[in-house]
Amino acid sequence: MSEKRKIYKPKAISGFPEWLPEWRAVEQRWLDHIRATFESYGFCSIETPSVEEIDVLLAKGEVDKEIYVLERLHKEDDDSKDARLALHFDQTVPLARYVAQHFNDLTFPFKRYQMQRVWRGERPQMGRMREFTQCDIDVINVDHLPIHFDAEIPAMIYDTLDGLDIGRIQHRISNRKILIGMLNALGVSNDKDIVSITRTIDKIEKEKQTELITTLISILKSALDINADEAHKQAEFILEFAKIKAIPKDFSGLLRDFIARNDVIARSVSDAAIQTINEGIEELSFVLDYLSYLPDHAVAGDLSIVRGLDYYTGTVYETQLLDVPEFTGSVCSGGRYDDLAGSFINKHLPGVGISIGFSRLFDVLKQTGHLKPAAKGPADILMALPSEEKRSEAAATARTLRERGFKVEMYHAPQKIGKQLSYAEKKGIPFVWFPPFEDGKAHEIKDMNEGTQEQADPADWSKP
Amino acid sequence: MSEKRKIYKPKAISGFPEWLPEWRAVEQRWLDHIRATFESYGFCSIETPSVEEIDVLLAKGEVDKEIYVLERLHKEDDDSKDARLALHFDQTVPLARYVAQHFNDLTFPFKRYQMQRVWRGERPQMGRMREFTQCDIDVINVDHLPIHFDAEIPAMIYDTLDGLDIGRIQHRISNRKILIGMLNALGVSNDKDIVSITRTIDKIEKEKQTELITTLISILKSALDINADEAHKQAEFILEFAKIKAIPKDFSGLLRDFIARNDVIARSVSDAAIQTINEGIEELSFVLDYLSYLPDHAVAGDLSIVRGLDYYTGTVYETQLLDVPEFTGSVCSGGRYDDLAGSFINKHLPGVGISIGFSRLFDVLKQTGHLKPAAKGPADILMALPSEEKRSEAAATARTLRERGFKVEMYHAPQKIGKQLSYAEKKGIPFVWFPPFEDGKAHEIKDMNEGTQEQADPADWSKP
Questions:
Q1: Is A69 on the interface with B (CB under 8 A)?
Q2: B136-165 as b/e, with b when 16 or more CB fall inside 10 Å?
Q3: Sheet of B68-72: strands edge to edge?
Q4: Are B392 and A101 a contacting pair at CB < 8 A?
C-alpha cells in the first residue's frame, strides 16, 4: 500500500458477542442439535422479521424490556408517515402477531419452534447481552389446549439439553393454579395482590427469609385487612408452602397432606378455591407422571417456581444445570398461558411454551472451560497440490471425494509438501490426500493424527 | 373471553418477508444445502453481530446504501456518550472489521462463509426488501492471494445453485484488468474516468446503444481532450469490445485477435497497458480453464461484466438463471478486490468473494410457481393415541422410533381414530403408527399415501 490511510481500529461492541470460527462451529453444532431435537417431535420452524411495529410490541401495554427503535440514517420529512419499527425483544410477541395474522393458514394445535436473535437495548455498562439467540418452542391451540403438551415440552427440552453434553439437568416444575387456589383460600383474590405475592415468592432463592416475610406481611395486611399477627402466620405459611419440593412420585400426596394439616386455610375455604388447587395438583401430577421415565435427578416438583410474569396460568418450568455451578439461575423457563394473542385477534388461544436462553448458556459454558473448540475449518481432507500440472487432476479428485460425502479443501498452490502439511495441521484437518505425483503412480492418504500414510483409490472411499 | 378487548389487527410490514411453515421448511432446506456445499469446500462459518458502529460502516466514506440506526425507545441523556450503532447493510464491511479485529487469531488464507440477515432502510413504497438474507463466501490472504481462489469460488457456486433444482445457471466472468489495460491503452488513466466508463458499460443490457455511445463520447472527450469524431470511434470500439462473449475454450484467442486487428489502440500503447491486458487475459484464462469440466452452458467469458463498484480489481462474476425468465439480473455476483480492510488495519489483504442474494432468489422462485411447499410439519410418523391408558406406551414407542432416527409427532388426546388420521392428512405426515389397542396385540403402521396398513415392531424400524 503506497498511500498512508487513516485507520479506524475496530473493537468489540459490548453486549454483541461474536466468535472465532472454531467456536462458531461449536455454536452451529449446538443449534443443529437443538433444531433436530425439536423437529424429532414434529415441531415446525418459523422465523419472523427482526422488527415489529412498535404498536405491536406495545399492544399489551408498556414492557419492561429495553427496546431498540430503527431510524433511517438519512431521514426524510415524510418518514414520519410510516409505522415506527423496532427490533423484537423476545419471540413471544412476534409469535402472537404471527398466529393472529396467519390464523387461517395454520394447522392447530400449532406446534412451532423459533430460533432467532432478539435484542434488548440495555446500557452497555451493565455487561448484559444486547443481542442474543433464543430457542423457543410453543404449542398453541384454539379454545382448549390438552395437558399433554405441558408434559411434552419438558420431555423435549430434556432430550435437547441432554444431547449437548453439559452434565445433568433438572426441570423444576410447578403449577400456578395450586398457589393461586391457596391464595384464594386465604382470601387473597385481587389479581394485583396475587402478582405481588408471586413476585415475592419468585425471589425465594435470592433474598433472606426475614425480608420475604416482611414483604408478604405488608401485602397481606392491606389485601386482607388483618392484623400483624395473623398476617405473620399467613406469610410463614405461604413461604413454607412455596418450599415444598419432592421427588415426582410422592409429590401429589405430599401436597394434599400439607394442605390437610394446615389450619390457616381450613376455616372458610370456598369450593372454587379448592377446585383450583385440585386442578393444579392434577395437572402437575399428570406432567410429573408423564416424565417419570426420566432419571430421578431430571424432574422435581417445586412450588417455589412461580415465574415473575402474571402471563402464566398453569404449569410453570425452570430448568437448571446440576453440574455447572458457574451457571446461575435458569437455563430455560416457560409455562402455560391462557391467551396468546388476545391483543391481535378475537380468538381464545391458550398455549404452553418454553425458551432456552441460548447465547448466555453457550457463553457461560465457553467462558468457564466446559467446552472445547472445534477445528479452525470443517474439512475432513486437504487435497495436496503436487505441481501446477496436476491441478486439474487434484481438483477432479477433490470433486469425487466431495460426491462421496467428504468435506475437501483444496490446497491452492504447488508449494513444498511440508508447507501444505503444516497448513493442514494448523487448521486441524485430519487427513491429507496426495494425488499421484507422476502419471501411473497411486493416490496416497496421510492420517495426520496417526502419522501413517497409505495408498488409496478415491472410488473406494466414502464417508461412513 | 369475557372481557371485550381492543384488538390491533396486525399486517405484513412491507419489505420484511416472513413465510408460512410449509415455505419456511423449503427455505431452511435451501440454507442447509448452501451451508453444506460451502463446508464441503472447507470454508468455515462466521457470524457477526447485526450491528456495527456507524463509524465502522462509514469508514470508507459515505455509502449509497440506506442505513438503519438504532435508538433506545427510552433514551437517556448519557446515551449520547455511547458509540452509535446501526444494522449492517451487507456482510463485506463486517467481514473487513472482523478480519482486522481478529487478525492474529485467524488462519490465512482465510476461507469463510457467512449467511445472515442484512438490512437496508429503503422507503417502504419502493417494494424492495428491507431485511433479507445474503449467503457470502470470501477468501482473504495476506499480501498475495493465488488466482486459484478466483476459479474455486464459481466452482462452489455452481455446486450450490445446481443442487437447488432451479434449472441451468450461467456464470458470466470477466477480468477488469483487461478493460482497464485497454482503457489505459486508449490513454484513459484517471481513476475517475475509468469508473465512469465502467459504470456506463455496466448498463449495457439496460440502456440503448446510442445513449451509451453519447455518454462514452462525453467522458472520452473530456478525459482525452480529443474531438468528437475520434471520441465516437473510441466509444464504439469500447462498446464492441465489451460485447465480446465466447465459450470458454476460444475466449483468450478471440480476445487477442480482437486487440490485434483494432487500430484504435495500435498506435502508441504503453508496455504497462499491454502487461495489464495480458495479466487479465491470463487470469481469466486460468479461471475459465479451471471451470472447463462444467457443462458448456455454465460458464461464459463476457467482457460486459464489469460490476459497478470501483472496489473490484481483477476477476468479476455475475451469475444468471437460464431457465427462470422471471428472475431478472444476477442471482449472485462478486469478484476480486485488492484490499479488504485497509480502513481497519495496516495490512494488505487481497480477497475474492461472491454473494448470493438469497431472499430475492427464494422469493421470486416462490412467487413465480417454481417451488413446491413442504408439508406443514416435519414429522415422518404420527403416533396415534388409542386410549388414555395407552399414553405411556405410545410415548415410549415414540421415543424408541425417535432414537431410530424418525421424526415422531405424538397425538395429544385419545380422540376418535378418524380424527387422528385426518390430522395426519392435514399436516402431510406420511405414516401413522398405532400402538397396540389392547395388551398382547401387535403395533401397526399405516402408509397414508398408499392407504395400506400392516403389523410392525418398533425395534425393527430404522430410518434409512
A1: yes
A2: bbbbbbeeebbbbbbbbbbbbbbbbbbebe
A3: A51-53, A85-87, A68-72, B68-72, B85-87, B51-53
A4: no
What residue segments make up the domains of chain B, in order of their start?
21-197+239-367, 381-460
- Give the pLDDT band of residue A256 (cuts 50, 70, 90): confident
Q: How far is A344 from chain B (nearest CA, A)?
A: 5
B chain contacts of residue A105, beta-carbon cutoff 8 Å: 20
CA atoms within 13 A on the CB side of A210: 0
CB contact under 8 A, B377 and A44: yes
Radius of gyration of chain B from its Cα atoms, rounded to whole angstroms: 29
Q: Does domain B21-197+239-367 have CATH number 3.90.25.10?
A: no
Distances (CA, A) of B394 to B389, B390, B399, B414: 10, 6, 9, 11
Closest-CA residue of A relative to B410 is A41
Max mean pLDDT among A299-303, B42-46, B226-230, B456-460 falls in B42-46
What distance in Å separates the CA atoms of residue B177 and residue B121, rounded to the nearest whole number? 34
CATH node for A21-198+239-367 = 3.30.930.10
Q: Which strands, in side-by-side order, build the sheet including A381-383? A: A408-410, A381-383, A431-434, A443-447, A453-456
Chain B's closest residue to A97, CA to CA, is: B10
Q: Which three cell numbers stand for residue B451?
A: 392407504
Contacts of B358 (CB under 8 A, 6+ apart): B30, B31, B34, B115, B132, B133, B134, B135
B84 shares contact with chain A (CB less than 8 Å): no
On whether any CB of chain A is under 8 Å from the CB of B51, the answer is yes
- Tell me the chain A residues in contact with residue B376 when contact means C-beta distances shorter than 8 Å: 44, 107
- CB-based burial of residue B404 (10 Å sphere; 0-12 exposed, 13-18 middle, 19+ buried)? middle
Q: Which three-class secondary structure state does DSSP give residue A171?
A: strand
**Closest CA–CA distance from residue B204 to any residue of chain A (Å):** 31
Cβ of B13 within 8 Å of Cβ of A47? The answer is no
Q: Do B21 and A53 touch (CB under 8 A)?
A: no
Q: What is the pLDDT of residues B71-82, one digit of tens each?
A: 999 887 777 777
Name the pTM for this structure.
0.95
CB spacing of B377 vs A107 below 8 angstroms: yes
Q: What confidence tens digit (pLDDT) does each residue in A277-295 have? A: 889 999 999 999 999 999 9
How far are the Cα atoms of A101, A110, A143, A345, A462 from residue A341, in angstroms, in the given order?
10, 13, 12, 6, 51
Quick one: what percent of chain B has pLDDT higher than 70?
95
pLDDT exceeds cutoff 70 at B1: no
Question: Is the link from the previous residue into B94 a cis peptide, with omega within 30 of 0?
Answer: no
Query: Which of B9, B20, B41, B103 has the most A C-beta neighbours within 10 Å, making it the best mutation to test the interface with A?
Result: B41
> What ipTM does this complex have?
0.94
Contacts of A54 in chain B (CB under 8 A): 73
First to last CA, chain A: 48
User: What's the mean pLDDT in A72-77?
Assistant: 82
The Cα A174–Cα A152 span in angstroms is: 15
Q: Do A8 and B343 touch (CB under 8 A)?
A: yes
**Dihedral angle computed from the Cα positions of residues A191, A196, A199 and A200, in that order, rounded to the nearest 10 degrees:** -140
B381-460 belongs to CATH 3.40.50.800: yes
Taking contacts as CB-CB distances below 8 angstroms, the residues of chain A near B289 are: 392
Q: Give dist(CA B105, CA A19) in Å, integer.
A: 11
